[in-house]
Structures are given as structure tokens and as C-alpha cells.
Amino acid sequence: MSFSQVHEEVFRSINDLGKHYPALNPFAVFLAEYTLYVLAAGVVVYWFTRSSPNRRMVVQAVLAFGLAEIYGTIAGQFYSHHQPFAVLPDVTALVPHEIDNSFPSDHTILFFSFCFSFLLVRGREGWLWLALAVCVGISRIYVGVHYPVDIAVGALFGMLAALIAYRLTPKLSFLNRLLAVYEKIENRLLPSKGNARNM
After folding, report:
1. Which helix (H) or strand (E) is 64 found in, with range?
2. Which residues cross the membrane (predicted)?
3. What is the C-alpha separation between 33 and 19, in angstroms, rounded?
4. How far apart are CA 67 and CA 187, in angstroms?
5. For residues 115 and 127, what is the distance between their CA atoms, to the nearest angstrom?
6. CA dihedral defined by 182, 185, 189, 192, rounded to 10 degrees?
């Protein structure tokens, strides 16, 4: 059996769940389309805890995403294919999506860049974020917009970039200086309770 046949079989085994268990479809659509807002809310909460380690973690995650997107763009120049719903017959397509190069999955790159960055810094709490990223990746296959290889490569790029950013960010002194300037301005405009009592 060729790689393409195995690849299609793995895709079908996940995507066909939408036919066999239609009650799961709304949950899969939520994971595939709307957990982006959950991730965004998490980033906002981490940032506005006004904790320097949390803010450095967010900066690290943003850097990781940027790096992973570069990897993904380069990879997409060497290999490409359209979404499975546009190519294969009888695909369970649960969300609208334009037809373009689906390799690798940008959605997966985003989630693994951020969630793996959170894992590297937050430990046990980060495992919950990583579990969310895995669920989102699987859901993108379930709803018919990506093949397993799109998800696997997107996850690999996201985690690799997160590791690089984790090592690199502490060495970028200008980022620490920018963050210190930002926090100084923020404390003047929006003093915390402790700072307000001391003013």
C-alpha cells in the first residue's frame, strides 16, 4: 500500500466520524473554527496579569509563530495540495473554506506555536494547552479541510519554532528593554493597586 493510500485511509477514518457520529459534529466545528477565540482570550489573560514572566512567554509565543509561518511558507513552495473536500469524493465538509494550498495547516501552526510555548514555560498547565492544540488539529481533519500530513507538519513546525524561540528569547536583550519600557508606561497610565497606594 502506497503512502498516498495510507494517508487517505487515515483521513477517511477521522473524517468519516462525522457520518457515523453526527452528534459530535457541532463540537468538532467549535474546535476547528472557534477555539481561536479561546486561545486569544488566554493570551490576553496572560498579558494582563501584569506578570513579566507571562508577558515574556507571550512574546516568545508570538516569535515562535512568526518563525513557524516562515517554515510553513517555505515548505508550501516545495509541496502543495488542495483541501480534501475539493479533491476527494464523499468528504464530510462541515465548514466553509476557500480552495488553496492546505499544506501545512496554518491553524495548526498557530496553535502549536502558542500552546507548546505555554507548555515550555507553564509546565502542567501547559499540557492542557497542548491537549487543546491536538484536539484542534484532529478537528481540522474531521471537518474536511486538512489531511493528516498538513496537521502533522504544522504541529512539527510549531513545536520546533517554539523550542527555538524558548532558547532565543532570553538572549534578545532588546526585547527585555522594550518590555520594561512598556511596563513603565503602563504603570504610569494604569497603576496597579500596589503602585497606586505608593503614589
Report:
1. helix 52-78
2. 27-49, 61-82, 102-120, 127-145, 151-169
3. 19
4. 31
5. 8
6. 70
**Rounded CA separation 146/139 (Å):** 9
Packing angle between helix 3-15 and helix 124-142, nearest 10 degrees? 100
CA separation for the pair 163, 159 (Å, rounded):
6
Radius of gyration of the chain measured on its C-alpha atoms? 20
Cell 472557534 belongs to which residue? 34
Q: Which three cell numbers stand for residue 46?
A: 496572560
Give φ, ψ of 104 to 5 degrees: -80, 180
Locus of grid cell 495548526: 108
Closest CA to 38 of 97, 154, 118: 118
Each residue's pLDDT tens digit, 119-155: 999 888 999 999 999 999 999 999 999 999 999 999 9
Q: Would you state the cell numbers that stand for residue 35, as one nine-digit string? A: 477555539
Q: 136 near 39, Cβ under 8 Å?
A: no
Give 85-122 pLDDT, tens digit per residue.
Answer: 988 899 999 998 888 999 999 999 999 999 999 999 98
Contact in structure between 116 and 63 (CB atoms under 8 Å): no
Distance between CA atoms of residues 117 and 130, nearest Å:
9
